[in-house]
Amino acid sequence: MLSQLFRSFLPLHNPIGFGATDFIELALVALLTGLILASCLEPRAQKLAARTGWCMLLLVALPIALRLLLLPGHPIPSPRVADDFSYLLIADTVSHFRLANPPHPLSQFFETFFVLQQPTYSSIFPLGQGLALALGRAIFGHPWAGVVLSVGAFCSLCYWMLRAWITPGWALLGGLLAALEFGPLNQWMNSYWGGAVSAAAGCLVFGSLPRLREAARPRDVVWLGLGLALQLLTRPFESILLAACVILFFLPELKGGAGFSLRPDSQDPEGTPVCATLPPTRIQERADRGGTGIQPVRASFRNLPGSRREPCWVRLNLARMAAIAALVVLPAGALTLLQNRRVTGSWLTLPYMASRYQYGVPTTFTVEPNPVPHRSLTPEQQLDFEVQSSVHGNGVDTPGGYLKRFASRARFYRFFFLAPLYLALPFYLLTLRSFRSAWTLLCLLIFALGTNFYPYFYSHYIAAETCLLVLAGIIGLERLSRLTIRGYFVGRDAARLIVFLCIAHFFFWYGLHAFGNEESLRGLMQYESWDAINHGDPEGRIAIRNQLARTPGKHLVFVRYGPRHAFQEWVYNAADIDASRVIWARDLGSAENQKLVAYYPGRTIWLLQPDARPPQLTAYKSSGMQPKVFTEIP
Length: 634
Description:
By secondary structure, this protein is mainly alpha-helical. It has 23 helices and eight strands.
């Protein structure tokens, strides 16, 4: 594999005729040029960073525009995994102005992953991501528009959140890095099972907290409530962890302490914290005084024992703020209960829990025993149940197993950081004496420890803390930028270098996807880490759908899996199955299939064998003599 990479450095095997030394020279020149340009652009970036509205608009548009530019080679993603299809079912159901669909009289043909067939035909997931997909479908005619909009909203809100914690220049940099890391090449942009909606919820919550402590405006309480409500609709369990972070933030006041306040490191001549006497704009002016570039972050949360004045945030007491936030969260809680009632028939039974009872998946927390299915499973469902039970393990968790799993998940955090930012993270640890950094680390631990009770780990489990991970990286860069060695400010250039490498890292892979040919993509994409943009048609789904689209009329497709089929499900349908142009059904044998054929007269009947290479779609023969054409990969 490495030979393919090195061959691309030969003059005859790359489109510009460069050799290896040419590439090295070009990289060095680009590095020096980038550092020089960075110093020239910083004053302008600082002026732009102070214009909150324009920056938020820029950060909404940037990841969206970058992804749309890739559409010629990487078209709108096709749903692939069970989660994608289940969330699309929510979007379609909501688009019909209902929360659940009536069960189909022949539901045995439509059994699949993460979809209930009884007591209603519904997705097992919460509403949040499905609502975003439904919004995109309503506005632009396609659910992927909801994915794109949610990513843009998250990147914009990430900057808004950072503005409450750090100076505008650093906040803009954090927003730009978020747009690169979670934008056009990221899984959250190129799938339907989400992450950005929960990440946006975290931005609303974590961005409102320092604003509440600074001025306690009712609108900031509303933002706090909206963030908690959105998280409840998207990730109910993680909303508890998010609420715990909020309580931790206000814990000093709940304990009756002197409180904390946002202030520069220095005090005025009277010893009064600066933020007790100055509005935020004046704080920023003092922080930026004496330079024109992006200045070090001087504001931090610290205890103020003996402060001569009341902290500037105390305008609404905590009880009033909690009441307002609860009123904002209340509709989300009511909607969740209503979904429970419509889908499962019980106000308190989540669809997730109904699936666990019926199918044994998703599996339980590690401190609980494995679930037991209470209905017959298809061979594919049985395999999924056995795999999830195996990952869960027999019995309940042990302290040793919990710690081992916790340590093994450190590698997954690469999803949230561009690789060069790892060099800045040690400098973040040097700032843990400040309340800001210590509280951030504790929140990260709350999510890491809480989600460690899941046998599996996916990035959207901790998506709500994404903005805190961005904040930690930016704090590390800021601390590094103030590093001096023998009186020389070497840290500033080091921080610029890391930022430049982050940008170069992104545009290398982005350029490859935008301009690379098939040969270069095959040779280099195997070395691409954590990006997940769709390319080609590896499972043959697009070809099969195109074949059906070219054939007029309505269709019924029986899906016949091979004996070694695993996990790649093809039986997924719209909310209104009977009205669908194409209906996908399980092949239950010739005699049983006739029931469905009779139920749908006038449709063209097909047989799909997805385990053939490529997948085979042929006219269905009801005699039971349908030939098998499996050519499975061993």
